[in-house]
Amino acid sequence: MKVSDLVKESYENLDSKDIELFSYITQNKDDFVEKNLKDFSKNTKFSTSSIVNLAKKLGLDGYSELKYLIKWEDGKIVDFDENEIEFTYNDILISMNMIKNRNLDFLFENLDKAENIYVIYSGFIQRNLAQELKRNFLNIGKIIIIIDARRDIALINENIKEKDIIFALSFSGDNKLVINFLNNIKKKVFVVSITKLSNNKLSKISDVNLNFISHEVYRYEKNTSISPVSQYYVIIDFLVLKYINYKSKKNTS
Protein backbone atom coordinates (compact mmCIF):
# COMPACT_ATOMS: atom_id res chain seq x y z
CA MET A 1 0.00 0.00 0.00
CA LYS A 2 1.16 3.54 -0.76
CA VAL A 3 1.96 5.95 2.06
CA SER A 4 -0.67 8.38 0.73
CA ASP A 5 -3.30 5.64 1.19
CA LEU A 6 -2.16 5.11 4.78
CA VAL A 7 -2.50 8.85 5.37
CA LYS A 8 -6.07 8.75 4.06
CA GLU A 9 -6.94 5.82 6.34
CA SER A 10 -5.39 7.48 9.41
CA TYR A 11 -6.27 11.09 8.59
CA GLU A 12 -8.38 11.71 11.70
CA ASN A 13 -5.51 10.55 13.88
CA LEU A 14 -3.05 13.04 12.37
CA ASP A 15 -2.54 16.62 13.49
CA SER A 16 -1.45 19.62 11.40
CA LYS A 17 2.25 18.98 12.16
CA ASP A 18 1.93 15.39 10.93
CA ILE A 19 0.38 16.59 7.66
CA GLU A 20 3.09 19.22 7.27
CA LEU A 21 5.77 16.59 7.86
CA PHE A 22 4.20 14.18 5.35
CA SER A 23 4.03 16.99 2.79
CA TYR A 24 7.71 17.82 3.39
CA ILE A 25 8.74 14.18 2.98
CA THR A 26 6.85 13.80 -0.31
CA GLN A 27 8.54 16.94 -1.64
CA ASN A 28 11.98 15.72 -0.55
CA LYS A 29 11.78 12.00 -1.26
CA ASP A 30 15.35 11.60 -2.49
CA ASP A 31 16.72 13.26 0.64
CA PHE A 32 14.48 11.14 2.87
CA VAL A 33 15.48 7.88 1.19
CA GLU A 34 19.22 8.57 0.96
CA LYS A 35 19.82 9.84 4.51
CA ASN A 36 19.44 8.13 7.85
CA LEU A 37 16.89 9.39 10.34
CA LYS A 38 19.27 11.63 12.28
CA ASP A 39 20.80 13.28 9.20
CA PHE A 40 17.42 13.89 7.57
CA SER A 41 16.05 15.46 10.73
CA LYS A 42 19.14 17.64 11.21
CA ASN A 43 18.42 19.73 8.11
CA THR A 44 14.70 20.19 8.84
CA LYS A 45 12.55 21.61 11.61
CA PHE A 46 11.20 18.13 12.33
CA SER A 47 12.61 16.06 15.18
CA THR A 48 13.52 12.39 14.87
CA SER A 49 10.74 11.52 17.32
CA SER A 50 8.12 13.36 15.24
CA ILE A 51 9.14 11.35 12.16
CA VAL A 52 8.96 8.06 14.07
CA ASN A 53 5.60 9.06 15.59
CA LEU A 54 4.19 9.79 12.13
CA ALA A 55 5.24 6.34 10.94
CA LYS A 56 3.55 4.71 13.94
CA LYS A 57 0.37 6.75 13.48
CA LEU A 58 0.23 5.35 9.95
CA GLY A 59 0.32 1.83 11.38
CA LEU A 60 3.98 1.20 10.50
CA ASP A 61 6.67 -0.18 12.79
CA GLY A 62 8.84 2.91 12.51
CA TYR A 63 11.15 5.02 10.36
CA SER A 64 12.72 2.12 8.44
CA GLU A 65 9.37 0.83 7.20
CA LEU A 66 8.26 4.35 6.21
CA LYS A 67 11.55 4.86 4.35
CA TYR A 68 11.12 1.54 2.54
CA LEU A 69 7.60 2.44 1.35
CA ILE A 70 8.72 5.88 0.15
CA LYS A 71 11.61 4.28 -1.75
CA TRP A 72 9.31 1.62 -3.21
CA GLU A 73 6.88 4.27 -4.48
CA ASP A 74 9.59 5.98 -6.53
CA GLY A 75 9.93 2.84 -8.61
CA LYS A 76 6.21 2.70 -9.36
CA ILE A 77 5.95 5.64 -11.80
CA VAL A 78 4.11 4.54 -14.95
CA ASP A 79 2.23 6.19 -17.78
CA PHE A 80 -1.53 6.26 -17.51
CA ASP A 81 -3.06 3.43 -19.52
CA GLU A 82 -6.41 4.31 -21.09
CA ASN A 83 -7.40 0.68 -20.56
CA GLU A 84 -7.57 1.49 -16.84
CA ILE A 85 -11.13 2.74 -17.39
CA GLU A 86 -12.11 -0.67 -18.73
CA PHE A 87 -10.13 -2.43 -15.99
CA THR A 88 -11.90 -0.42 -13.29
CA TYR A 89 -15.28 -1.14 -14.90
CA ASN A 90 -14.45 -4.85 -14.80
CA ASP A 91 -13.39 -4.58 -11.14
CA ILE A 92 -16.79 -3.14 -10.24
CA LEU A 93 -18.67 -5.66 -12.38
CA ILE A 94 -16.82 -8.64 -10.92
CA SER A 95 -17.34 -7.29 -7.38
CA MET A 96 -21.09 -7.02 -7.99
CA ASN A 97 -21.27 -10.56 -9.36
CA MET A 98 -19.25 -11.93 -6.44
CA ILE A 99 -21.58 -10.52 -3.78
CA LYS A 100 -24.73 -11.15 -5.87
CA ASN A 101 -24.00 -14.87 -6.24
CA ARG A 102 -22.70 -15.48 -2.74
CA ASN A 103 -24.81 -17.38 -0.19
CA LEU A 104 -24.91 -15.26 2.96
CA ASP A 105 -27.44 -17.31 4.96
CA PHE A 106 -24.82 -18.14 7.61
CA LEU A 107 -24.13 -14.45 8.13
CA PHE A 108 -27.83 -13.55 8.23
CA GLU A 109 -28.60 -16.32 10.74
CA ASN A 110 -26.03 -14.82 13.10
CA LEU A 111 -27.29 -11.33 12.34
CA ASP A 112 -30.77 -12.34 13.51
CA LYS A 113 -29.33 -13.80 16.74
CA ALA A 114 -27.19 -10.77 17.54
CA GLU A 115 -28.20 -8.60 20.48
CA ASN A 116 -26.03 -5.73 19.26
CA ILE A 117 -24.41 -4.87 15.94
CA TYR A 118 -21.19 -2.87 15.84
CA VAL A 119 -19.14 -1.48 12.98
CA ILE A 120 -15.52 -0.48 13.56
CA TYR A 121 -13.44 1.70 11.29
CA SER A 122 -10.21 3.65 11.09
CA GLY A 123 -9.92 6.43 8.53
CA PHE A 124 -12.06 8.97 6.70
CA ILE A 125 -13.36 6.72 3.90
CA GLN A 126 -14.19 3.91 6.30
CA ARG A 127 -16.05 6.32 8.59
CA ASN A 128 -18.28 7.36 5.69
CA LEU A 129 -18.90 3.71 4.86
CA ALA A 130 -19.77 2.99 8.49
CA GLN A 131 -22.34 5.79 8.40
CA GLU A 132 -23.81 4.40 5.17
CA LEU A 133 -24.02 0.90 6.63
CA LYS A 134 -25.73 2.29 9.73
CA ARG A 135 -28.23 4.26 7.64
CA ASN A 136 -29.10 1.28 5.43
CA PHE A 137 -29.64 -1.06 8.37
CA LEU A 138 -31.68 1.54 10.24
CA ASN A 139 -34.08 1.57 7.29
CA ILE A 140 -34.80 -2.11 7.90
CA GLY A 141 -35.08 -1.85 11.67
CA LYS A 142 -31.52 -2.79 12.67
CA ILE A 143 -29.54 -0.42 14.90
CA ILE A 144 -25.79 -0.26 14.37
CA ILE A 145 -23.33 1.19 16.88
CA ILE A 146 -20.33 2.86 15.22
CA ILE A 147 -16.98 2.40 16.96
CA ASP A 148 -13.71 4.23 16.27
CA ALA A 149 -10.93 1.63 16.39
CA ARG A 150 -8.47 4.20 17.76
CA ARG A 151 -10.19 5.03 21.00
CA ASP A 152 -13.23 2.92 21.92
CA ILE A 153 -11.81 -0.48 22.95
CA ALA A 154 -12.53 0.06 26.66
CA LEU A 155 -16.12 1.06 25.88
CA ILE A 156 -16.82 -1.97 23.74
CA ASN A 157 -15.26 -4.41 26.23
CA GLU A 158 -17.63 -3.10 28.90
CA ASN A 159 -20.73 -3.69 26.80
CA ILE A 160 -20.10 -6.38 24.22
CA LYS A 161 -21.80 -9.79 24.45
CA GLU A 162 -20.85 -13.10 22.90
CA LYS A 163 -23.82 -13.08 20.49
CA ASP A 164 -22.97 -9.64 19.14
CA ILE A 165 -21.70 -8.99 15.61
CA ILE A 166 -18.89 -6.67 14.58
CA PHE A 167 -18.47 -5.41 11.02
CA ALA A 168 -14.82 -4.44 10.49
CA LEU A 169 -14.00 -2.03 7.65
CA SER A 170 -10.51 -1.85 6.14
CA PHE A 171 -9.73 -1.27 2.47
CA SER A 172 -6.46 -3.20 2.55
CA GLY A 173 -7.45 -5.66 5.26
CA ASP A 174 -4.12 -5.01 6.96
CA ASN A 175 -4.92 -1.91 9.02
CA LYS A 176 -3.09 -2.50 12.30
CA LEU A 177 -5.47 -0.38 14.38
CA VAL A 178 -8.49 -2.43 13.31
CA ILE A 179 -6.67 -5.75 13.71
CA ASN A 180 -5.31 -4.83 17.16
CA PHE A 181 -8.77 -3.65 18.18
CA LEU A 182 -10.30 -7.03 17.31
CA ASN A 183 -7.46 -8.91 19.01
CA ASN A 184 -8.08 -6.92 22.22
CA ILE A 185 -11.77 -7.77 22.45
CA LYS A 186 -12.11 -10.05 25.46
CA LYS A 187 -15.18 -11.99 24.33
CA LYS A 188 -15.61 -14.23 21.29
CA VAL A 189 -17.90 -12.39 18.88
CA PHE A 190 -18.95 -12.91 15.27
CA VAL A 191 -16.73 -10.79 13.01
CA VAL A 192 -17.63 -9.76 9.46
CA SER A 193 -14.87 -7.97 7.58
CA ILE A 194 -15.27 -5.98 4.36
CA THR A 195 -11.96 -5.70 2.52
CA LYS A 196 -10.28 -5.75 -0.85
CA LEU A 197 -9.79 -9.29 -2.17
CA SER A 198 -6.28 -10.24 -1.07
CA ASN A 199 -4.38 -12.47 1.32
CA ASN A 200 -4.88 -10.02 4.19
CA LYS A 201 -4.76 -10.45 7.97
CA LEU A 202 -8.27 -9.18 8.69
CA SER A 203 -9.94 -11.75 6.44
CA LYS A 204 -8.09 -14.52 8.28
CA ILE A 205 -9.41 -13.55 11.72
CA SER A 206 -12.99 -12.97 10.52
CA ASP A 207 -15.88 -15.41 10.56
CA VAL A 208 -17.05 -13.99 7.24
CA ASN A 209 -15.07 -11.86 4.79
CA LEU A 210 -17.00 -9.87 2.19
CA ASN A 211 -14.50 -8.85 -0.46
CA PHE A 212 -14.30 -6.82 -3.63
CA ILE A 213 -11.88 -6.29 -6.50
CA SER A 214 -9.92 -3.05 -6.76
CA HIS A 215 -6.53 -1.97 -7.99
CA GLU A 216 -4.38 1.15 -7.94
CA VAL A 217 -4.55 3.49 -10.93
CA TYR A 218 -1.43 5.65 -11.33
CA ARG A 219 -1.17 9.24 -12.48
CA TYR A 220 2.19 9.79 -14.16
CA GLU A 221 2.83 13.42 -13.27
CA LYS A 222 2.74 13.21 -9.48
CA ASN A 223 3.28 9.50 -8.90
CA THR A 224 0.09 9.39 -6.90
CA SER A 225 -2.61 6.78 -7.19
CA ILE A 226 -6.34 6.37 -7.09
CA SER A 227 -7.88 3.22 -5.66
CA PRO A 228 -11.58 3.29 -6.64
CA VAL A 229 -13.82 2.66 -3.62
CA SER A 230 -17.28 2.46 -5.21
CA GLN A 231 -17.04 -1.33 -4.85
CA TYR A 232 -17.14 -0.81 -1.08
CA TYR A 233 -20.57 0.78 -1.42
CA VAL A 234 -21.67 -1.99 -3.79
CA ILE A 235 -20.92 -4.57 -1.08
CA ILE A 236 -22.93 -2.63 1.51
CA ASP A 237 -25.91 -2.12 -0.82
CA PHE A 238 -26.04 -5.77 -1.88
CA LEU A 239 -25.58 -6.93 1.72
CA VAL A 240 -28.71 -5.07 2.79
CA LEU A 241 -30.73 -6.12 -0.28
CA LYS A 242 -29.81 -9.77 0.18
CA TYR A 243 -30.72 -9.59 3.86
CA ILE A 244 -34.15 -8.16 2.98
CA ASN A 245 -34.58 -11.00 0.47
CA TYR A 246 -33.50 -13.55 3.10
CA LYS A 247 -36.05 -12.22 5.61
CA SER A 248 -38.80 -12.13 2.99
CA LYS A 249 -38.25 -15.76 2.01
CA LYS A 250 -38.05 -16.81 5.65
CA ASN A 251 -41.35 -15.12 6.49
CA THR A 252 -43.19 -16.74 3.58
CA SER A 253 -41.83 -20.26 4.10
UniProtKB/TrEMBL annotation:
Residues 107-249 form the SIS domain. GO terms for biological process: carbohydrate derivative metabolic process. Coiled coil: none annotated. GO terms for molecular function: carbohydrate derivative binding; DNA binding; DNA-binding transcription factor activity. Gene3D superfamilies: Glucose-6-phosphate isomerase like protein, domain 1, Winged helix-like DNA-binding domain superfamily/Winged helix DNA-binding domain. Pfam families: HTH_6 (PF01418), SIS (PF01380). Signal peptide: none annotated. Residues 1-77 form the HTH rpiR-type domain. Keywords: DNA-binding, Transcription, Transcription regulation. It comes from the Bacteria. InterPro entries: Homeodomain-like_sf (IPR009057), HTH_RpiR (IPR000281), RpiR-like (IPR047640), RpiR-like_SIS (IPR035472), SIS_dom (IPR001347), SIS_dom_sf (IPR046348), WH-like_DNA-bd_sf (IPR036388). This is MurR/RpiR family transcriptional regulator.
